[in-house]
């Protein structure tokens, strides 16, 4: 325990920015570290000092202990905050920080080691009498042994990485025939995320709620619980919506879970901020220990908002040897907070992560937004695709929910596909509104992922009018005329102008009348529809809501009515999508970790042909149709660019 005046944040993105804000408020000097891909990142510009620590790949930068310690020494930092993810739950890193004479903002290496391995932690909890999910966490974690024990556990079961968290290295298995593939994918994903491919098995508790208790402890052994969070709405075991307190949580079950969580923390001499995660059975009375995250959680803002505490400030105080400023009796939960995670991903394409430039990021200042990006930034393929967290607070759950819905309607992120429309739709779902969603809610509601909303004639007309106005504005800016008031003037009142518009690659044959005026009428050529769009975004006189911005090539990004669209003039040389012509291409940059077929093999639509690793996740690439593999154009272990050809197929007939 040492006092310090300079803090190095060994992380990136929104959590690095969030830590910097509190450190600055406390008068601490902040030091950022960054990879090659993050040279212009927001956290770099926010810090007082920044040090380059390596290449874009996390293994060569944010997971490089020596580089981070060298940066700490060069900057004169007295402490290191690991944030979450990366090295935050790495006991070797915590020990190296201490051996370098620096303060690690987190628990002891011993606590991290026990809780950082789910198998060891589970055995520890069973010995302490904490209820746990049945499963296997023995010393022999070979595939053969796991498959043997899976027979006894039965399905459904969970394959889980023993190390780390955040949903990485986890697979639900509903039939034992799928277990071998699940083990392979989970091992590969766990190795990439945590450098440890050890797995355990657990019986899957169906229709449960994911409830976690925030705990805090100081060096004197004082340990308190700061209420619970409900994180049941999750996809692939990564949380999507989090809230505090949990809907319908009775005081009796809350106290039982808090007591258990405090016992878990005390059993390992825990110090600092930690989260004990439980599964609450569908009967609402029985709960089971899942794991303890020995770090600050992504969803900590909802706890901050209902307790009035700054958890990062508490972390920094405890790390300097100060006692907790409150007792368990002082903890009160007031109001309700709900958080959603904004990801760069396309829910309508299997939640595939997205990359590209963020042309515009507008947020609603009526709520709390923790973000790591801003307009002009680029989303790279090297890291987790979470961009920001949007958090609303209200006196009641209904008030918080209404506030969050309004904020999402007023938020725009253009240029890269995100889950913003998906989040907005979720908040309208009856189960989410009622607060009754379980951990299987998303899988049951969207077994094949959400469908892309239909493109209506009104949306097409709006996209056309906004593109034409954007082109007119560009022309005015480039004009050498001192008076541009007559741009767009037509003595005949404006004849219909034919144009072909490309919206997300699909061509639409249209006509437009009144170009250059306050009202543009767009009609579908031969479709029998027309709509008039005014400059104040009224469609046929009715107000609509939309956000738009020009791209770098004369096109337009438009967000409206659940759509994020890219609008351009159609080009006569546009080619069709490669997948429709019997080819499998890389949907984004990544490492081709597996290629499951050979030339000449017959495949069925939906078969997993390859596995691509990108943004710390394994993505299964499926056959777009029945066919025969003609040729392979890539091999396992190869780094692919977006659109790279992996294989070609031909019709089996």
TrEMBL record:
Q: Which residues form the ATP-grasp domain?
A: 122-320
**Highest taxon, organism lineage:** Bacteria
Lipoyl-binding domain residues: 575-650
- One Pfam family name is CPSase_L_D2
Q: Which cofactor does it need?
A: biotin
Q: Which residues form the Biotin carboxylation domain?
A: 3-447
Q: Which UniProt keywords apply?
A: ATP-binding, Biotin, Ligase, Nucleotide-binding
Q: Is the Ribosomal protein keyword given for this protein?
A: no
The entry's protein name is: Geranyl-CoA carboxylase alpha subunit
Organism, by scientific name, is: Shimia sagamensis
Q: What is the lineage of its organism?
A: Bacteria, Pseudomonadati, Pseudomonadota, Alphaproteobacteria, Rhodobacterales
